[in-house]
Amino acid sequence: MSTASTSTTTTPVDAAAAGREQSAVAQAAKRAVLRRRAAIWAGRIGFAVLVLGGWEVGARTNVIDPFFFGQPSGVWSALVNLFQNGTEFGSVYENIWVTMQEALFGFGIGAVAGVIVGVTLGQSRFLADVFGPYIKIVNAIPRIVLGSIFIVAFGIGTLPKILLAAVLVFFIVFFNAFQGVREVDRNILANAKVLGASRLQVTKHVIVPSALTWIIASLHSAFGFAIVGALVGEVLGAQQGLGLIIKNAQNNFDPNTVFAAMLIISVLVLVAEWVIEKLEHYLLSWRPAAPSEASNAI
Amino acid sequence: MADANNGRIEIEGVTKRFLTPSGDVFTAIKDVSFTVEPGQFCAVVGPTGCGKSTTLGMVSGLDKPSEGTVKVGGKVVDGITDGVSFMFQADALLPWKTVLANVALGPIFKGASKAEAQARARDWLRRVGLAGFEDRYPHQLSGGMRKRVAMAAALINEPKILMMDEPFGALDVQTKAIMSNELLGLWEQSRPAVLFITHDLDEAVALADKVVVMTSSPGTVKAVYDIDLPRPRGSVQEIRFEPRFLELQHQIWDTLREEVERAYARTAGGPTEEGKAA
Ligand SMILES: Nc1ncnc2c1ncn2[C@@H]1O[C@H](COP(=O)(O)OP(=O)(O)O)[C@@H](O)[C@H]1O
Ligand SMILES: [Mg+2]
Known about the structure:
heterodimer; A: mainly alpha; MetI-like fold; 2 domains; 13 helices; about 85% helix; about 0% strand; flat; B: alpha/beta; Rossmann fold; six-stranded mixed beta sheet; four-stranded antiparallel beta sheet; 10 helices; about 20% strand; globular; binds adenosine-5'-diphosphate; binds magnesium ion
């Protein structure tokens, strides 16, 4: 002990010099990080300018026919027009809200059903074996076609869109929840049982939290599918919604409005992704930081 | 009633067979019989793959024997045995729960309120020297600290039987010695029966009252030795130099070595040996 302390003793002068040297190293590292970040942003902006500028120039010189493919300035004015003058089916906000409602309800119903069925089948070999083939069959059919059936059965209100979105979401979440339950650590499971946990307690304390990593990972792509379900439903037949705006613009040979609606949708999806990411951070806060995050913390 | 509550383990003529994926029947253990008295510390040693973990699984009720019976406190094991706790080589802590919540699981599963469970968990964390670490997650602890958490989690329900499957197998030598001493200290306080699996003979002799030596696969009981070293044993590092320890250690090693060599020859010698054995 005493030898260790003498060997690490340094004079104050040494310590100050070491401190200066360390802060110089830290500053150099910080500058390198900043330079790298600036280069990345320059690359990103440059790429966008290249693509949009190329498209615009191509359209103006008629290399790309703007009648079919639109042009960025046209998309921008279509976007402004949508927000300023609204559409034949009410203001653009109303239409966004309708589509969002359908997607959100579909997402909620599909996700909850997917988790419940996935966790149940994941825990029961018997049920999994009974329903396995049917799930495979239903998964193999192109489910988007169900949209037509739902429209025929339930009319052109919001219900068929919600159902279509829910069906699309259900399968993604279901497969992930099922797999997540199957991957639960056997030792942990045995330990909980030996400690006297009931079936319900095992599910609550061990299985669901353990499967949560898988379930949340599936929610990211699931929300995109919920939007797809709502839009396809609206294209098939609706009174309001972004899908209807797209379909109407298509009938009017107005590609710029189609692109404008696409832009709105991608912003909606990005916002939803952001919310899901926050949820993920909150629910999975126990996880060790990923290596990249950890090195950023220095 | 008093009899049903004690932790006497009676393993009588137990055979366990598994169906291998290729459809063959594989006998993991064959006609195993031994008894662990209440409050006794019993170590089981044997080459890897001889069926030690399989035996534990049947005492805990996680698995059923193909033949023979396992009795705990005079009652045939059927379903999860009441009053047992487990400790594995790998961590069985829930990574998404804090240290406190992990230790509190035992009482919560038994129906205690959250406040009461946490109060008891706090007390147990203090006993294993982890006061102040209640809010950490398992991945924020060292291997030795995680073992202490697992120990507190296993002991909090005051089990009449503690089963340990190579609990310190993944630790470095120094940490292992420290953990062994702490285990003995905690065990002296409440004296559950212990079934302790290890492949480290020194560890078995230093800790146990009784050492069961198993043969290589299919596992049977080859010999049972009583360890008459006085208790409390004190430091497990120091006991290794006592003449009686060395005498017992040599005696048991002579029995065990043959089995370890046979098991090794089987894995190193390839499938021909396996075929002959089957
Ligand atoms: N569920 C199982 N199915 C098939 N074989 C198994 C199963 N569990 C264990 N075994 C086999 O039984 C033998 C004994 O295993 P185990 O009890 O884990 O040995 P030990 O703990 O002594 O190393 C091994 O050969 C193992 O492959
Ligand atoms: Mg084992």
